[in-house]
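Slide 14.
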Amino acid sequence: MSDTLYDVAILGSGPGGLQAAIHASRKKVKTLMLGRIDNSSLYWAHVENYCCQIEITGEEILKKGRAQAESFGTEFRDEDVLAIEPEGKLFSLKLESGDIVRTKSVILATGSNRNKLGVPGEKELLGKGVSYCVDCDAGFYRNEVVAVAGCRSAAAGGAVALTNFASEVHLYCAELDVNEGLRQQLVDTGVKVHEGVSIKEIVGENAVESVLLDDGTTQPVSGVFIELGAKGVLELTAMLGVQLDENMKYIETDKKQRTNVPGIYAAGDICGPPLQMAKAVGEGCVAGIETATYAKKLELN
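Slide 15: predicted structure.
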């Protein structure tokens, strides 16, 4: 565990998170930003509808934003958060490297995309063995064989977590893209990693029965967890009690970007439509200012 106590920790390196980092750091509070900018959907976009910017790429915007935040003192760690746990008035963040960092406040700015696998059976068996949330549904698969699809921290971290419940965990990915700490956890917990093998179809009548793989083989499983990016809103808020909308898709906030949990704020697409950079930046501005104010006033004794 790091001895450093941060005032503000920001999850997600998109435009909302970067704007929050800029404003929080300018308030002279210790700010940490977590995540890789190429995880942001903006990274691959060409921007035409953002005020005062014409013919600029999302990659350019994000790289400039990171440099700007760094110039004001924001610290960056290019790794994802696997879990958030309350620790008295503070929060403890578990990173994919295995490190633990502590912070007075958290801004959730991870975006809203729940990437689909796009294979037969995925839609039909959703809720019948297909899940997008390990933290929500792992307990249903005690002593069962399960599969996880994905190449990055959400998939690897989810696979490790599932070993506490399932009898056997298979992770399928084209090429595993996690740091050595998380890769070692896969080994230590006995996850069966199949690199270069992908799920081609999820098979079952009224429930998941197996997965058909692109190498022509079939693996009997009772559950399939699809984790194709960084940890999303459901996973990160499952144990915190953060209020979501009626469709369990977006985080509800007030005009100061506060959630119902003191010290937890949110900004950007994770708060709902319109899913536009302009909205994300505005909300990030508010969240950065408000978390800095909150952290300065927080009394730990």
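Speaker note: The domain at 5-113+232-297 is CATH 3.50.50.60 (FAD/NAD(P)-binding domain).
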